[in-house]
Each structure stands twice: as C-alpha cells, then as structure tokens.
Design goal:
By secondary structure, the protein is of the alpha+beta class. It is built from 19 helices and 23 strands. The termini are far apart.
C-alpha cells in the first residue's frame, strides 16, 4: 500500500540531519527538526521547515527520549520519522513506538532490529542460513568458565559487547592471563554504553580487512545490493576512511560476500536500507561480523559510485514503493570518504573543543562536504566528535585519491583542532596508495604517520592562507580604510 510521506520529523542532529533535509527538500517533503538548547540555531534547525525544542537531563538524553520525539512528530502533524544514524536509529522499542503511534518509521521493523541488532542472535541467524561466522563463545556471568571456554577457541581473541557498536566494549586478548580482567572491563563498558552487559569472545583474525555490503529490501524477501565498501582504515575499532568499491578484492570473493549478504537479508525479510559487514582474513576466508539496520555514515561513497540517492530510496520504500531494479544499477569509478573529527592526533586523539571561526572546503562536482557546522558554533564534548565528512569521486581509485588529497589541502576548520592533517598523511601513505589495507594499518604505520614539525615560516604561510580564505576577513581587507575612504576620488 502506498502511503506518501508529506511531512518528516528527523530524530537526529548535525550533518546527518542536514543530509536528510537535503533529500527531503528535493522530493517536496516538509521537514521538522528537533534541537536541544545547545543546538540553538544549528544548521540542521535552520535548514528545516520547522523546529521543535526538546529537553533532557543531558543533551544526548534529549535526543534519546523516544516518547518526546514521537509526541513532537504528532504535534507537528508529521507522517514519518527518520532516525538517521546513532541515537535511536537501531532501537527496536523506538521503531515500535513510532509505528504504534500511527507514524511511518523510515527503517526496518522492530522485529528485524531486535534480530539483527543483537550480535548473538544475528550470528545464530547467520549460521542457520549458511553464512560463515568465526568461532565464538558467549559469557553467562561466570567469567572463570567463560575464560576456560574461550581459551579453547585459541588466542588471540576479540571480546565484544552483544548489544554493542562503535568499538565500545571491544578488546583484543592475547593470553589467558588477561582474559578474565579484560572480560570484566568489557562487560562493564557494555553495561554503561548499552544498558546490556552481555559479552562474547570470538577468534580474532590478524590483519583483517573490514568489508561491507549495502543492501536494500522490500520486507517481502526481495533484496538488491548497491555494491561493497572498504572500511579497513580504523582507529580503535572506529572507521575513519571508507571507500567504494573495496580495493584489491578478488571478483570471486566480492561475489561470495554479496551473495551471503543478499541471502541473509532475504531470509530476514529485511525492509529498507541496511548493511551486512564482514571480516576478511589474509587467506581470503570471510566471516559475518554484524548487520547495521540503519543508514551508514559512509553511504555517500556508495551513492557516488552507483548514482543513486540512498536517503530517497529509504523514503520511497517507507512509503510503500518497490525496489530499484538491480539490472539498472551501473557502478562507475571509485569514491573515498574521510571523517573529520574534533580530536588531536598529536595528543593521543584527545577530543577537542572550541568555537568554529571559519570553514573553507572545496566546491567541485566530484566532491561532497557533509557537515552540520556553522561559523560561531561552539564544539563541546556532549556529542560525537565527528564534525564533517569529506567525499571525493574519480573515474579510478587513483583519481579519487588524488582528488581527496587536493580536497584535504583545500579544507580548513578554524577555531577547533581536527584530524585533517592526519587524514591527509594516511591518504598519501605508500601502503594506502597500494591498497595494502587492514584494520591494524594505523597502528602498524604509526611512526610514518606521525606529523613533521612545522617551521616558523611554514606555519605563518598556512595561517595566512587559511585567514585569506575566510570570506568575512576578505571583505574587511577589501574595504578602503579611513582616512582614505573620506578623502573622495583624489590621487597623489
């Protein structure tokens, strides 16, 4: 049944809220943004057609208050809620509450989120449908027995939170001596972040690659794919650079993972956009990692190579439209994304705060700068440190990389320390250029990725270039100062 979306509440903030508004506007869908007082006059609130204030004991708590968000959508006469990513995007109770209120949830149903959002049930589901998983053991509360059972798998092991994500509750263990202590720490962290202290251990693959497949389902067992992505460049289990398609991936391995992803999503009767993630061992063996039942941060690289608007696809499926035709999707070129974060690579990536004094970024048909930033905005520690995403496309990977190098050099965020220079060093690293990627890349190459000390003149040149790129400062420079402005048109 077709149920058009005419008014959409976006249960999120920052760059992803701006991204969703961009597509909704193209489709003629009115948008309602939500904002905590700390986001007063934030870009996502300004871009939306309307804005609704939300409150909470903490800023994050406001965006996690599902009842408040559903009430806001009803009060503003919305047809649907888009959760974006993060916050409540993979919360089954929220998805259910939205639909019980008579609204459209732009994403899969609550049952699917419960099935695939829990890593234990998702792994069991994968096993039942002949999708390979690495050997694992679940903790039952007795850490001594857990340590004994886990050690039988063989070291190294990776301890993970059953309800986790974003690297929280994860730890690599290389000996039995460390296992109980690491397990206890992981369980505690999982409880703090997810309200669920269940953990499990699986065999850790050394120098693994992280490959994911973008799928789209109609909820009736019909599923298509939008290609694969390479997400191996990670820092502390969190992705910072992604690309599509995956680099140096044999065609038969790519086809096998795509087939596994489609079979898994079809068996789950998956609805809307989702991502099936795999770990690939150096010998070419691959294992199911997890399924993300939401829009991914890195969806832009897929859009650039397949020429489709994934948010538009989400909205169409939520409205009851069918899937795009697999045969009509043409993959062209290569795309790379870098996540720009407010953190200091020279101080062990400590989060940074400040006030945004200027933003300069490339404006080319082959680049995208997604952000929720504006000049004067205060960057604190209440939210995720990711400030923006820089994406480039090229006819080949080499061209996409060259353009990303150029784009990073042309991007400046004044007032807040970011990881931009660090991203540039990764992109230009010989190992990255050769496509020799794995999740330990940044640790392995840490010495060669360290910054070089700037000379005094080099630092002055950089500051002058950044300042001269600021439009406000340029206008001041171009103005004729007194007393010459008062003297009329005389010449000396």
């Amino acid at each position: 049944m077709i149920r058009p979306i005419r008014r959409l509440l976006i249960a999120n903030r920052g760059e992803i809220a701006c991204r969703i508004i961009e597509t909704a506007r193209k489709l003629g869908i009115a948008t309602v943004a939500v904002q905590h007082r700390l986001d007063h006059k934030a870009p996502h609130a300004i871009l939306a057609d309307e804005v609704m204030e939300i409150e909470g004991e903490t800023p994050v708590g406001a965006y996690l208050d599902s009842s408040q968000l559903v009430r806001a959508a009803i009060q503003k006469g919305c047809d649907a809620i888009h959760p974006g990513y993060g916050f409540l995007s993979e919360n089954a109770s929220f998805a259910l509450a939205v639909r019980e209120a008579g609204l459209i949830f732009v994403g899969p149903g609550a049952e699917t989120i419960r099935l695939m959002g829990d890593k234990i049930t998702a792994r069991d589901f994968a096993v039942r449908h002949d999708v390979p998983v690495s050997p694992s053991v679940m903790a039952d509360g007795d850490l001594s027995r857990f340590a004994t059972d886990a050690s039988r798998i063989g070291f190294p092991l990776l301890i993970k939170a059953a309800a986790g994500g974003g690297g929280k509750g994860m730890s690599i263990v290389r000996s039995l001596d460390d296992l109980i202590e690491r397990a206890a720490l992981a369980a505690g962290e999982a409880g703090r972040y997810f309200g669920d202290n269940r953990i499990y251990a699986e065999r850790y693959v050394e120098r693994p690659r992280h490959i994911e497949v973008q799928i789209v389902g109609d909820g009736k067992g019909n599923v298509i794919h939008l290609g694969d992505r390479e997400c191996s460049i990670q820092r502390r289990f969190q992705k910072i650079i992604e690309e599509a398609p995956s680099v140096n991936l044999p065609d038969n391995l790519r086809a096998a993972m795509i087939d596994s992803a489609l079979r898994l999503a079809s068996a789950a009767c998956y609805e809307n956009v989702g991502t099936v993630e795999f770990i690939v061992a150096p010998d070419g063996a691959y294992y199911f990692l997890e399924m993300n039942t939401r829009l991914q941060v890195e969806h832009r690289v897929t859009e650039m190579v397949c020429g489709l608007d994934i948010v538009a696809i989400q909205l169409a499926i939520a409205s009851g439209d069918g899937l795009p035709d697999q045969g009509s999707i043409q993959f062209k070129g290569s795309a790379i994304e870098c996540r720009i974060c407010a953190e200091n690579p020279d101080r062990d990536f400590m989060p940074e705060t400040g006030r945004v004094l200027g933003i300069v970024h490339p404006r080319q048909p082959w680049s995208i700068f997604d952000s929720g930033l504006s000049e004067g905005q205060v960057i604190g520690t209440n939210f995720d440190p990711m400030l923006a995403k820089l994406v480039t496309h090229g006819a080949s990977r080499a061209e996409a990389v060259e353009r990303m190098t150029q784009a990073i050099r042309c991007t400046t965020i004044l007032g807040v320390v970011t990881n931009l220079d660090y991203l540039g060093r990764i992109i230009e690293h010989p190992g990255f250029l050769a496509g020799d990627l794995h999740t330990g890349f940044l640790v392995e190459h840490a010495p060669s990725l360290a910054p070089h000390a700037l000379g005094a003149q080099e630092l002055i040149d950089i500051l002058i270039a950044a300042a001269m790129s600021n439009p406000g400062l340029q206008r001041l420079i171009d103005d004729v100062p007194e007393p010459y402005a008062l003297a009329g048109g005389w010449r000396n």
